[in-house]
Amino acid sequence: MKARLPSYAVLTLLVLFLVGPFFVIVAASFSAGSTLAFPPQGFSFKWVEKVFTVESFQASFALSMFLAIVATFAALVLGVPVSYALSRYRLPLAETVRTIVSSPIIVPGIVVGLALLRYLVVPFGMDITLSLFLAHTALVLPYAVRVVSASLENLRSDIEEAAVLLGSSRIGAFFRVVLPNIRGGILAAFILGFVTSFNQVPVSLFLTGPGVRTLPIDMLGYMERTYDPSVAALSALLAFMSIGIVFIAERFIGFSRYV
Amino acid sequence: MFQNRAEGFALALPAAIFAAVIFIVPVIILLSGGMHVNGHWTLSAYTDFFASSLDRLVLWRTLKLGILVTLVAAIIGYASAFAIVSLSPSSRGRMIGIVVLPLMISPVARTYAWLVILGRTGIVNQALMTVGLTDEPIRLLFSQTAVFVGLLQLFLPLMVISLVSALENMPNDVVPAARVLGANWLQIFFKVILPLTREGLVIGGTLVFVGSVTAYITPAILGGSKVLTLVTLLYQRVTIANDLVSASVIALILIVMSFGTNILLRKIATARNRA
């Protein structure tokens, strides 16, 4: 139907534009020189090694990892029941509830971070890590609701009604019939939530304290102070981590159809 | 459908209350701060914002960048989406995977790559000097162009994915039918394809526009204080000027832009579908 050559040309350019910069970071991180340059000056592992010796990176990596796992878990604990209620119960105000739990995705992150800092952290003396946990949970919640809701919509509701008719309790039917069937969706929601929280910058921008900084914020600060390729090396490592996660998720649950 | 309302509410309320307390209430208090100055309810902070030429310039620049990125993303998006749906199913899946992948990579890392590409000793400058087009490095960073390229790279995948699924849902025979009836490619695109993929374009456009006008990392790294956008201006107002009133004004403008785009584009999509 269409000429093939222009089509391949377009796709080549697209891939070059989207993926090319990633190869640039990888190449820059193996540079032997002391400033960021391309093509890299020589070849060495020293910047990759340096990433592992910068103490603040270790602490902020641990914090980001912890936040991403705990906040995504909390968002699912809140998000699965509300998605179930929205898809299986006839609720008055259902649209209002949906808007409320989805709103963190529409309000710009920097506004959320500032609001939390001024009206939860400062007046109530809330711990920064706790405020980060709450902010990230709110941020991941819309993704959890969206992906889990889509899985629930694709699952026929008569099978759990049948289970209830056959004498199962509502809760029993949920855990034995519904949950096993939306496993893929929950796993996809977890991965999407994890990545969203781990990479999040605007929300966490104001929520930093002495020694409490998420990894992306720490990287931004480091970039302002130094111009050496260690941030390139760290970026490359993080990109490899994301690629690994997505690759495994794609193999097992067909991740890209949930995004 | 279960009819038990109490049970349904018991399942829905924890999440709704959490989002309201942690999120909606603090944001509303923040926004009201911009209308409550020196103990009075007033809109003076808003008139100050629109009276300041710097603030107006930043607002206009943010809008302009958002619109440009969205337009260019739509053009590249259609070209790419056509190419992707013309592939065989297996390579189509692989190609979608490649398009989705950057979305999972840290935006800090993705933006950082542009420092390497556009920096003084970056690829573009090296190439220009080797070819002899310039003797010394030209400044590519900290310009609107750099911010534009960074934003486009960041948000283009969202547009491509939306348009691919819109094209996949389009009936197969409409383009050949229009062709047989003598329409040229321009007519086919504007009279057949565009109306049938409008919803995908609207969804992709909303994501790209709102993402661009509310992005922090890209303007902060690639624009610096030379190319302020509303978000980086807000950050400066809080951290440098400690001016919460002005920050709250910018926050409301950002929220209006984000909510407004969502509502407006949803309206356009449904209104035209009814007609």
Can you describe what's shown?
Chain B: Belongs to the binding-protein-dependent transport system permease family. CysTW subfamily. The complex is a heterodimer of chains A (259) and B (275). Chain A is mainly α. Chain A contains eleven helices and no strands. Chain A is globular. The mean pLDDT of chain A is 87. Chain B has 275 residues and is mainly α. Chain B has two domains: 33 residues, no CATH class; 229 residues, MetI-like (MetI-like fold), CATH 1.10.3720.10. Chain B contains 13 helices and two strands, in the order H-E-E-H-H-H-H-H-H-H-H-H-H-H-H. In chain B, helix 3 runs parallel beside helix 7 and helix 5 crosses helix 7. Classes of the chains: A mainly alpha (259), B mainly alpha (275). At the A-B interface, helix 1, helix 3, helix 4, helix 5 and helix 6 of A face helix 1, helix 3, helix 4, helix 5 and helix 7 of B.
Kindly summarize this structure in a few lines.
With 259 residues, chain A is mostly helical. Chain A is built from eleven helices and no strands. In chain A, helix 3 packs across helix 6, helix 3 runs antiparallel to helix 10 and helix 7 packs antiparallel against helix 8.
Which helices and strands occur, and which strands form pairs?
The complex is a heterodimer of chains A (259) and B (275).
Chain A: H1 4-29, H2 46-53, H3 55-88, H4 94-106, H5 109-124, H6 128-153, H7 158-165, H8 170-181, H9 183-199, H10 215-225, H11 230-253
Chain B: H1 5-33, E1 36-37, E2 40-41, H2 44-51, H3 53-85, H4 89-104, H5 107-118, H6 123-131, H7 144-169, H8 174-180, H9 185-196, H10 198-213, H11 217-223, H12 230-239, H13 244-274
Antiparallel strand pairs in B: 1-2
Helix pairs in contact in B: 1-13, 3-7, 3-10, 4-7, 5-7, 5-11, 7-10, 7-11, 8-9, 10-13, 12-13
Organism (chain A): Pararhizobium mangrovi
Subcellular location (chain A): Cell inner membrane; Cell membrane
InterPro entries (chain A): MetI-like, MetI-like_sf
